[in-house]
Amino acid sequence: MTRTRPVRRLVRHVAVTVVAVAAIGAVAVAAFGVGGAEPGTEEPRTIHVSTSTVTRRTLTDTTTVDGKLGYGAETPVASRATGTVTWLPAVGTLVSRGETLFRVDNQPIVLLYGPLPMYRNLATGVKGDDVKQFKQNLKALGYAGLGSDDAFTDATAAAVKRWQKALKRQETGSVAAADVIYAAGPLRAARQSARLGGAAAADVLMVTTTRRIVTVDVPTDAQRVAQLHNAVTVILPDGRQLKGEVISVGPTGDHGGDGGGDGAGTGATSNAGTGPPLAGQAVRAEVEVADQAALGTLDSGSVQVRYVAETHTDVLTVPVQALLALADGGFGLEIHEGASRRVVAVRVGLFAGGQVEVSGDGITEGTTVGVAG
Question: Judging by DSSP bridges, how do beta strands 283-289 and 241-251 pair with one another?
Fold first, then answer.
C-alpha cells in the first residue's frame, strides 16, 4: 500500500468543491452546495451520517506475497571417493551426524557437521582447524579421550579406530579425505544424481535442509520483504499464522549453495543479499518457519507471507472514510463541535488497515470528525 495511490484515486473523483471519500480512493458520495466553503468556515449542511474520534496509535502497513512451502534450494553433494556407487539414500531420507550419506565400493561416506571442508587426509601428527573440527564431531558422537586441541594424537587414532569399527570399515586409525562429508547440519536427500553401479562422479546426490522453508519470488513492488533476518508471518492454507524469518536472499534462479568444498553446504543460512536488492531486480527470498512442529505433516504447497512494509508509531489517525477531498487540492476533515460543523485542511500520512495518519492545526486526540456512511 503506498501513499500516492490513495491520493491519485481520491483526486480522480473530485467533481465539486468538497467530496467525501468512502474508502481509500474509492467512491465519491454526496457533495456540498456549489461554490462550497473554504476550510475553517461552517457548513450549512453535512454529508456525514456518523462520527468518529481522532485516535493516537501505531499504524502498520502490511503487504502479503505468495510463496511455496518446501525444503528450500537443492545443493549437490560431490564425492571425492573413486569407485562404484553401491548405495544412495531414498528421496526424503533424513541424514544426521555420524550417519551414512552414500556408499562407494560398499564403504560408508559419513556426514559430519562443520564449516570447513574435508580437504586432506588426517593421521597421527597432523595439526590444524580441520583436525579440531573432526575431533569435535567424534566427541559429539560419544567417543572419549580426544581432548579439545587441534592435534591428531595417538589417542585420536585410537578413537578413530573405534569409530571405524562401528562403521565396519578397516581400522586404520587415520581418515581419508574422501571418507567424510561436512555440512552445517542434518540433510534431506532430495534427488539422486548418480546411479547405482555407476562411477562415483563429482555429484552423487542433491540435498536440502531438513527444515521446511518458504520460497518467495518477490515482485519488484514488494521487495521490502527481501531483507535478511526480516521477521514475517507465514499464512498456511488453513488460515493458521506462524512466525518466520528471512534467512536467504538472492537473484531469482539462484539456488543457494554451490556445492563447493566437499559439496554439502546446505543447512547454513545464506549470506547472499545482506543489503537491499537492486531496484527493479527480481529477487528470491527464503523464509524459515520458526515452529516446525506446527507445520505438522505439511511439507509442500502454496502459502502466503505477510511482512510489515512500514510502521508509524504514536500518530493521530482517523478512519479513511472521514477524509474529504478539497477542490483546491489536498484533504480535509469535518470537525464536529457541538452543533457546529467546520472543515479543516489536514496533511495525510500512512494509510493502513482502514485508518489514515493525519495532522494539522486543531487536530488533536479525541477530536470528533464526521465519517461518510
Answer: antiparallel
Residue 27 lies in a domain: yes
Are 220 and 259 within one domain? yes
Q: Which residues contact 199 (CB under 8 A, 6 or more apart)?
A: 82, 83, 84, 85
Distance of CA 191 to the CA centre of its chain: 25
Strands 180-183 and 107-113 come out as parallel
Domain assignment present for 78 = no
Domain count, the chain: 3
Nearest partner of 184 among 72, 87, 282, 309, judged by Cα: 72
The pTM assigned to this predicted structure is 0.67
pLDDT digits (tens, 9 = 90+) for 263-275: 565 543 444 444 4
| 301 is a domain residue | yes
Whether residue 146 lies inside any domain: the answer is: yes
pLDDT, tens only, 325-359: 999 899 999 999 998 999 999 999 999 999 999 99
Close Cβ partners of 289 (under 8 Å, ≥ 6 residues apart) = 211, 212, 213, 214, 234, 242, 243, 244, 295
One-letter amino acid of 135: K
Position with higher pLDDT, 83 vs 270 = 83
Closest among 191, 234, 231, 201 to 215, alpha carbons compared: 234
| Alpha carbon distance, N-terminus to C-terminus of the chain | 23
DSSP secondary structure of 309-334: EEEEEEEEEEEGGG-EEETTSSEEEE
Asked if residue 278 and residue 256 are part of one domain, the reply reads yes
Q: Which of 355, 363, 367, 348 is nearest to 59 (CA)?
A: 355
| CB-based contact 190:199 (threshold 8 Å) | no
Rounded CA-CA distance 273/226 in Å is 8
For residue 209, CA distances in Å to 113, 167, 213 come to 13, 24, 9
- In whole angstroms, give the CA distance from residue 360 to residue 348: 9
Task: Give the CATH number of the domain where residue 8 resides.
Answer: 2.40.420.20
Q: List all residues 6 or more positions away from 255 whose beta carbon is below 8 Å from its beta carbon.
A: 73, 74, 75
Q: Quick one: angle between helices 154-166 and 129-140, nearest 10?
A: 50
Question: For residue 40, how far is the Cα from the chain centroid?
Answer: 48
